[in-house]
């Protein structure tokens, strides 16, 4: 086995300790108080996990309109580590009807527990702690299920025709719910489609669920599928239902349609010539094989690591010991600590160990014009440095030659790496994935351009890690997570996938370099897998890779 495989396997422990298992969490809530007499709440639950003393948002459920007892379709998938205390906080919000963001939402309270508590009890119910610490009437119930064996996903596309009309002045507004029949005869919500308004022949959006969620890997397990007519007051009208199995659904794999009559049992008994309340059609069933991060690495995927360093004037004069860029003979500054902590992990996944290093926000020789994407080694033709040590040396050598200036613009460097990553897209192979590490001491000044650059980059094989250096107020940087949990460009285009991770270095000032690296790189394996799986790009098997492309020494 080549050296890169050994070093990758050895340092994978710093990406994350060995994951014992993956766990799916499902949420229901009962007894949410009405905001006022005129309207019911529009509840959404946000899942936070504690990391190094900080609560970080992991994911959030959909918003269910006008509902005091919501059952959420959204499934949270978490890695469970036996040796770690994984603290979770579930925050309940009443979302403003006109706006899905949390800024204008009412915070109703939260529940805290550990992942181990949920797993050991399988189903954990806790009363909501309201703001101020009083116990509320609402109960959140979290159900855990281990993902075992088959982690494939299935993609399903449903439509219907000639559904019953339940509305007087318009047509029905149908949505479909799929429930799995558990071994104890209880029903578990697997998926709820969106509502198609005013349409008796709806075509619902294609969706993806794990085979484990759908049928626990049992292709004969009964699935109860119910069609409802949506009402804004939350009292949805029942249209009908049908039973199916995944074995039946697989009939749509070859592009053939599978159909079920949608039956209302009451009508069947009462109406003499009753046939059905419509036909539900499965137009497509596609099984998606899920590959792991190691599958791609072992198949020869290289992590191309690029670093960008902030040389704006707010860092302070590098000759002054108070400067964030001050080079102490014995103690590395925060820029160097962050660079080495993250770079030393990434270099194990890159065979040539040559890393492009750029600077931004400085006036550079010979004409001292401001640049936002200059090579730290001043070689624009070849900005690569030999190893992380080479990046460190280039950084130290360039400092005396620069005039620190401004502003803090990072869009140009994101676009530069994105341009290189876009060339990789055409290969349609999992050979190069790009990680851009941006080290900056302040809030960025080109936020609109940066959001646009990140949205475009989310279509490419790349991730962006931003580490905030120093003691600035980085709260505006949370904009990069978007107002409603999704980052959007100034025109409103959402990111295709989450590719940005931001952490302030000060949170890790007294922690080991491994703790910083683990925090900022923890998402990378999933981002790599999500990108290639979404494109349907399979990893090469190691033998294919080794015969097609030799490693350097």
UniProtKB/TrEMBL annotation:
GO terms for molecular function: calcium-dependent phospholipid binding; metal ion binding. Keywords: Calcium, Metal-binding, Repeat. GO terms for cellular component: plasma membrane. Residues 1-128, 134-261 form the C2 domain. Signal peptide: none annotated. Gene3D superfamilies: C2 domain, von Willebrand factor, type A domain. GO terms for biological process: cellular response to calcium ion. InterPro entries: C2_dom (IPR000008), C2_domain_sf (IPR035892), C2B_Copine (IPR037768), Copine (IPR045052), Copine_C (IPR010734), VWF_A (IPR002035), vWFA_dom_sf (IPR036465). Belongs to the copine family. This is Copine IVa.
């Amino acid at each position: 086995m080549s050296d890169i495989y050994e070093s990758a396997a050895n340092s994978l422990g710093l990406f994350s300790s060995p994951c014992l298992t993956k766990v799916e969490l499902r949420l229901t809530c009962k007894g949410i108080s009405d905001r006022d007499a005129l309207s019911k709440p529009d509840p959404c639950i946000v899942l936070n996990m504690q990391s190094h003393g900080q609560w970080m948002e992991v994911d959030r459920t959909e918003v269910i309109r006008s509902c005091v007892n919501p059952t959420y379709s959204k499934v949270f998938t978490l890695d469970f580590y036996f040796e770690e205390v994984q603290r979770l906080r579930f925050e309940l919000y009443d979302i403003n009807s006109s706006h899905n963001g949390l800024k204008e939402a009412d915070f109703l309270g939260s529940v805290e527990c550990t992942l181990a508590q949920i797993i050991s009890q399988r189903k954990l119910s806790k009363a909501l702690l309201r703001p101020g610490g009083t116990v509320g009437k609402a109960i959140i119930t979290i159900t855990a299920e281990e993902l075992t064996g088959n982690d494939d996903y299935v993609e399903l596309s449903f439509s219907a025709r000639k559904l019953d009309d339940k509305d007087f002045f318009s047509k029905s507004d149908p949505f479909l719910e799929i429930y799995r029949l558990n071994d104890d005869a209880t029903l578990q919500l697997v998926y709820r489609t969106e509502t198609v308004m005013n349409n008796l022949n709806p075509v619902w959006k294609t969706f993806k669920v794990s085979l484990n969620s759908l049928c626990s890997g049992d292709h004969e397990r009964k699935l109860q599928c119910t069609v409802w007519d949506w009402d804004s007051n939350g009292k949805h009208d029942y249209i009908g239902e049908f039973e199916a199995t995944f074995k039946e659904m697989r009939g749509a794999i070859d592009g053939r349609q599978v159909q079920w009559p949608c039956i209302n049992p009451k009508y069947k008994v009462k109406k003499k010539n009753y046939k059905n309340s419509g036909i539900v059609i499965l137009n497509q069933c596609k099984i998606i094989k899920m590959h792991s991060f190691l599958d791609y690495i072992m198949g020869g995927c290289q992590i191309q690591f690029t670093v960008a360093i902030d040389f704006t004037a707010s860092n302070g004069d590098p000759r002054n010991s108070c400067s964030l860029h001050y080079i102490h003979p014995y103690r590395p500054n925060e820029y160097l600590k962050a660079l080495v902590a993250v770079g030393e992990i990434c270099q194990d996944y890159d065979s040539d160990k040559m890393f492009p290093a750029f600077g931004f926000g400085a006036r550079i020789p010979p004409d001292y014009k401001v640049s936002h994407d200059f090579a730290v080694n001043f070689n624009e033709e070849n900005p690569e440095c030999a190893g992380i040590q080479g990046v460190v040396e280039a950084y130290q050598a360039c400092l005396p030659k620069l005039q620190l200036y401004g502003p803090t613009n990072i869009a140009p460097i994101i676009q530069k790496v994105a341009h290189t990553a876009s060339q990789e897209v055409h290969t349609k192979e999992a050979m190069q994935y790009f990680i851009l590490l941006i080290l900056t001491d302040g809030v960025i000044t080109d936020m609109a351009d940066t959001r646009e650059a990140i949205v475009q980059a989310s279509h490419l094989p790349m991730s962006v890690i931003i580490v905030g250096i120093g003691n600035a107020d980085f709260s505006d940087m949370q904009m990069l997570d978007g107002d409603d949990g999704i980052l959007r460009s100034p025109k409103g285009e959402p990111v295709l996938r989450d590719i940005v991770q931001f952490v302030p270095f000060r949170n890790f000032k007294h922690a080991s370099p491994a703790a910083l690296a683990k925090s900022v790189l923890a998402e990378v394996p999933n981002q790599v897998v999500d990108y290639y799986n979404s494109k349907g790009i399979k990893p090469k098997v190691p033998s294919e890779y080794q015969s097609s492309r030799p490693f350097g020494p």
